What does this fold into?
Amino acid sequence: MTEKTKIAIQYIVLIFASLISVFPLVWMMIAATNRSVDVIAGKLTFGSRLFENYQNLIANQDIYRGFMNSVKYSVLQTVISILICSLAGYGFEVYHDKIKDGLMAVILMSMMIPFVALMIPLFRMFSGMGLLNSAVGFILPSLSTPFLIMLFRSAARSFPIDMIEAARIDGLSEFGIFFRMFIPTMRSTFAAALTVTFMNAWNNYIWPKVIMQDSKAQTLPMMISNLTSGYFTDYGALMLAVLITTLPTAILFLALQKNFAEGITGAVK
Amino acid sequence: MKQKIGLNQKRNLFGWVFLAPAVILIVVMSFVPAINAFITSFKTGNGADLHFAGLTNYLRIFKDAVFIQSVKNCFFYLIIQVPVMLVLALILASMLNNRKLRFKGIMRTCIFLPCATSLVAYSIIFRSLFAADGFVNLVATKLHILSEPYNFLAHPTSAKIVIIIALVWRWTGYNMVFYLAGLQNIEYSVYEAAKIDGASPLQTFFKITVPLLKPTILITAIMSTNGTLQLFDESVNLTNGGPSNQSITMSHYIYNQAFQGVPKFGYTSAMSFVILFLVAILALVQMKVGDKRD
It folds into this structure.
């Protein structure tokens, strides 16, 4: 095999993989602008039915409310979760001793507990506390995650101890060092954490399905799932709903893509 | 000297302040409910009216045909999907690591893009694509691969295969990013030296890439195994467990038993501990296998 054919094979494989990866998303976007009949007929060009599809969609589900609910829950979860987990990851590394290292190992074990095992006790606990249908109920179980703590712990490992010592001599408090030095230095880790946490919150499905029993508290993924459970077979409107659900995470991901890769690299090291 | 110890103790205390919120939340939101579920798994009764019944729930599991089917389904997804996806991700990552190729950035973005979709959203896209009147049937009949539209989601085997195709589509790029990150830690000169020594691409792949990426491969294998055993969104939204529970996953069945009709919290807790047990065992096995090859 000559060098040229080797390169050609790699291009063919990669381009094929890229097309397969993108096609369902492009198909979804095209379908969102077409009539259901045209979607079924296999029309692969953009149509002009976007507005009509939107009308049909909101006649069936309160998509605007679902969107605002999803934004509210996801932003709250992202901000609080990153704050709590970055403090903990930093703490586990910078102040580490035998007890804290042992505790970290115990925390990692919680990654193995499947969510279905927690779902029922959490549901009973939250319904007793009146947290059903609330944003607090949505975010509480996922605020502290071993994955994020691990991510920030590895980031803190590459944060030079000399800098911390120097800052202490300059009279900066321990929290001052964290907020004024660690956060600005570790921007790419925070961006990676933001991407992962926001996506997890936005896409969470099983937990809101358990606790959001009031239709006014439902999230976007729940609403698009509702659309498919009835006799609603308007592909155009359905794909528009899927598009609305996908856009925020896709934009966030494309904007922070570089930081995401860098942040994850730190975690894998 | 005395003062220094005092300062260290003060810092140690500060350390605990940093950890406290995260640790308390994990204890209250994971360990306490897990212990609670473990205790509940030995109780029976309807709704909140529960009493101890020993191993009744665990014995019932072995006679529950649907649960056994759901365990089989999860292992079917696991055994086929995880290796296919990880090998694909490795191949694509090592190709994207080739410095001679151009447009790597855009190809990487394309392959990673499926990860930006929500699990419910992509399940619905694939359900529509593979529907009886969907795009796949349309193309297959036009190209005369199929003589008439095939209802993929109405047959057990094809329904499961559609779930596997969807999973591979959604997660290959995600794992690829981990491998690309791992590959960046390998000196590129190692590859150039191998080439000068006349190593074929296949030899380079198996003798350099795979051994050096072993820790990353182990992490991704454990993560995907854990994820596959807990599949829920796809089972609900792509096939709705059907036809007649033939593609249902363990989490989906547990959810149905707990929240549809009369809640059976004792029995569902016992089933969820079976998943915990399987996840733990598989993680241990994978770590053992991962160590052996050293």
Summary: The mean pLDDT of chain A is 89. Chain A touches chain B through 89 residues (CB under 8 Å). Chain A has one domain: 62-268. The radius of gyration of chain A is 23 Å.
